[in-house]
Amino acid sequence: MKRQKLNWSILLLALIGLFLTSCQDEDTSIDTSASQEIDLKSTETETELDNVSDESSALIEEAYLTEEFAETKSIPGNRYLPDCVTITKVITQNNKEVTVDFGEGCELRNGNMVSGKIILEYAKDPDAASKMISFEFDGFVFNEKTVEGNGSILRERSNDNGNPRSTRTGTITVTWPDSSSANKNGTKIREWIEGYGTGAWGDNVFLITGNWMFTKKNGTVLSAKIVEPLRRELACKFLVSGTVELAKNENSAVLNYGDGDCDSSAIVNINGGPDREIDLSAIR
């Protein structure tokens, strides 16, 4: 009888231990899920990275065209590149290296401020239907944010729609004045749908598609994809339309850049909740 009572005691202790362990595991699971939510700040950071990425693509495209087809360009005042930029080149037998230098501070036509350099390198073949351009940022600063990274752009003179198209692959890291940073790594396809060949930058319009991985300032990694093509008009400081979806586990956010008006407003919807408006001009 004494031995039987001891066995029941051991069994009772084992059950209590199992119950406590189960509760502890359940609590840990809840905490982990909560830490993976997408907040408003995530979408604001994404808009900043989008703006830096798309503006730098415009600068690379314009620098390439200015260098390769200078004889077809109109007077310098009609270039998208401002007069404060300096372009130098080093030519070897097969390659050309082009340095786009914005100095210590240069205001772009749409009001964005940049400094530092973007370095391009590509093969010497002006008649090629497509060309691979490598690029790298060197001390480049965009609206007081330091930009680092590199990649390549496959530039096609004409796609199936008869428009120039650039496919950009690479990584970009943006660091804010408070030393926080965020990163995006992936692919963007940029189709030039209006204004090509007119000699004036103000009528240039692009449609952008693609997908990438977006690393938040706190290190959390999200996936991002363009659901509706982003519309970029060089005459506007911001994207004017299109949607981007961010996702992490079961959480998602949709970032809507508007219906085509040139303004600083964007709408964010997180996990199907209420729409929230953000001011792109206030994000610095």
What structural category arises from helix and sheet content?
alpha+beta
- What is the average per-residue confidence, as pLDDT, rounded to a whole number? 83
Low-confidence stretches: 1-6, 8-35, 71-77
* Beta-strand content: 35-45%
Biggest sheet overview: 14 strands, antiparallel
Total beta strands? 14
- The succession of helices and strands, N to C, reads HHEEEEEEEEEEEEEE
Portion in helices: 10-25%
Distance between the termini: 77 Å
Question: How many helices in DSSP terms?
Answer: 2
Estimated radius of gyration: 25 Å
**Tertiary shape:** globular
In words, what does this structure look like?
- By secondary structure, the protein is α+β, with helices and mostly antiparallel strands.
- The chain has two helices and 14 strands.
- Strands 1, 2, 3, 4, 5, 6, 7, 8, 9, 10, 11, 12, 13 and 14 form a 14-stranded antiparallel sheet that branches.
- The protein is globular, with a radius of gyration of 25 Å.
- It starts with a helix and ends in a 5-residue tail after the last strand.
Helix-strand layout with pairing:
Elements: H1 2-35, H2 40-68, E1 86-91, E2 95-101, E3 106-107, E4 113-123, E5 130-142, E6 145-156, E7 165-175, E8 181-194, E9 205-215, E10 221-233, E11 241-248, E12 251-259, E13 265-270, E14 276-279
Antiparallel strand pairs: 1-2, 2-4, 3-4, 4-5, 5-6, 6-7, 7-8, 8-9, 9-10, 10-11, 11-12, 12-13, 13-14
Short description:
The protein is α+β, with helices and mostly antiparallel strands. Helices cover 22% and strands 45% of the residues.
Primary descriptors:
14 strands, alpha+beta, 284 residues
